[in-house]
User: Which sequence fits this backbone?
């Protein structure tokens, strides 16, 4: 029976730091002290989650049925350990499951002393092999066991949350043994890079990284996942008690891509018009999307031509080698989940979808001072480089191409090295807070002002920050 000692040192230190501020007026704190307080409380919260995860794993172990009604949870009137934990913590069953998953990870790797995943560069990687983590005949831990140790260490040291631990654990559990054992080096590099990049990113961006690592490591299993998704598609229309109607749809990422593109483009154009005339449109983005969907269906009733009236496109990308073989994984602009190349090849036959094959010759991308507006070809190249908003990774349909050195003030050229994709919100924030922007080796870097970072250390943006395959 594996076990784990409850280690409260980090939690106690953090709690003492926070408790030392007892009675302070948070509303009067200077910004720097408020940021520090936020960091300190967040660390205590993560440490508390680690302790709760260890307890959850033990509750799960004791709840395993030995006889009818003999488990820990069932003896107390609960159907599962998750239900007991949800009642105890006041959270959801999903949150309880994540606590149990993380606790099992921490308990299973208790005796390991892995490397710190926050320190290696993107080029460093451990080796990852079979998903079941079998040790070698010599007693050496398997590559997957070492990776799980790295993941557990990141949780213990507060670099990642319990939710992130469950995300990684679910992904590596879903990998097929055959695929991973025959492609160990690539799988190792992908998951280690995802783990390195995950620190400091919001959960939805970490989920995107994990999806990419899972799909690129095991494209055959990912394709089977897509087939299951296709069979699970649905749309329901329900009358609510207040007279409104609720539409619920579950679609594959590929099927949702054109819908997302049309709705996002409509919102972007409406917001652009509002900036020029604030009184032109008072609708919220969600109301705009609802109106677009309604207008599309009205149009379909009256018109024999299948068009939305909104000019927009869906861009998909894959490597030339994957295009030729039909095996592998590619991307859809604005969609977090990777998509199998087999599905992308079928979609590329649609006239409204633009396939971008990496490695091919392209049109002229730099125009100097001969024209002010960026061309559609340049915009596609910027989407390829930045992946959307270079700052927050908002979908490309939300973004516009901006001159880094302004056209009028700085006589900046209309070239890719002087261009960046930004959504309206990030564009205004960067100018308001006086951030600098540089493009080095086809990578966007944001330079913080001295008021935020006295060293003004550049921060990587764009696709190389948010994607594994950048």
Assistant:
């Amino acid at each position: 029976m594996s076990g784990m000692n409850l280690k409260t040192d980090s939690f106690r230190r953090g709690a003492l730091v926070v408790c030392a501020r007892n009675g302070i007026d948070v509303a009067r704190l200077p910004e720097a002290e408020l940021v520090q307080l936020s960091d300190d409380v967040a660390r205590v919260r993560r440490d508390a989650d680690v302790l709760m995860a260890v307890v959850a794993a033990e509750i799960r172990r004791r709840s395993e049925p030995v006889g009818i009604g003999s488990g820990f949870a069932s003896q107390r009137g609960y159907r599962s350990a998750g239900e007991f934990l949800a009642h105890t913590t006041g959270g959801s069953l999903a949150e309880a499951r994540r606590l149990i998953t993380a606790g099992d990870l921490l308990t299973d790797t208790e005796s390991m002393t892995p490397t710190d995943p926050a320190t290696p560069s993107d080029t460093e990687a451990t080796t990852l092999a079979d998903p079941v983590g079998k040790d070698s005949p010599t007693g050496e831990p398997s590559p997957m066991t070492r990776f799980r140790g790295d993941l557990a260490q990141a949780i213990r040291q507060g670099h990642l949350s319990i939710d992130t631990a469950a995300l990684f654990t679910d992904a590596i559990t879903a990998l097929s043994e055959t695929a991973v054992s025959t492609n160990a080096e690539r799988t190792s590099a992908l998951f280690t890079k995802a783990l390195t990049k995950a620190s400091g990113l919001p959960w939805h961006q970490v989920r995107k990284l994990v999806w990419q690592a899972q799909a690129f490591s095991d494209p055959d299993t990912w394709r089977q996942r897509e087939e299951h998704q296709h069979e699970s598609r649905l749309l329901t229309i329900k009358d609510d008690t207040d007279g409104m109607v609720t539409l619920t749809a579950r679609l594959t990422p590929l099927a949702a891509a054109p819908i997302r593109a049309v709705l996002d483009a409509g919102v972007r154009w409406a917001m652009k018009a509002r900036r020029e005339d604030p009184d032109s449109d008072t609708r919220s983005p969600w109301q705009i999307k609802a109106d677009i969907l309604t207008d599309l269906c009205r149009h379909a009733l009256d018109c024999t031509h299948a068009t939305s009236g909104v000019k927009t496109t869906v861009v998909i990308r894959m490597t030339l080698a994957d295009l030729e073989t039909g095996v592998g994984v590619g991307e859809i602009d604005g969609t977090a989940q990777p998509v199998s190349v087999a599905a992308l090849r079928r979609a590329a036959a649609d006239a409204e979808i633009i396939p971008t094959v990496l490695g091919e010759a392209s049109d002229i991308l730099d125009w100097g001072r001969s024209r002010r507006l960026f061309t559609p070809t340049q915009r596609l190249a910027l989407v390829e480089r930045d992946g959307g908003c270079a700052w927050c990774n908002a979908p490309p349909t939300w973004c516009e191409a901006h001159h880094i050195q302004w056209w009028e003030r700085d006589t900046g050229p209309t070239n890719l090295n002087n261009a960046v994709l930004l959504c309206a919100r990030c564009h205004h924030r960067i100018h308001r807070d006086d951030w600098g922007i540089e493009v080095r080796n086809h990578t966007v870097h944001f330079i913080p002002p001295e008021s935020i970072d006295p060293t003004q250390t550049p921060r990587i943006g764009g696709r190389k920050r948010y994607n594994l395959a950048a």
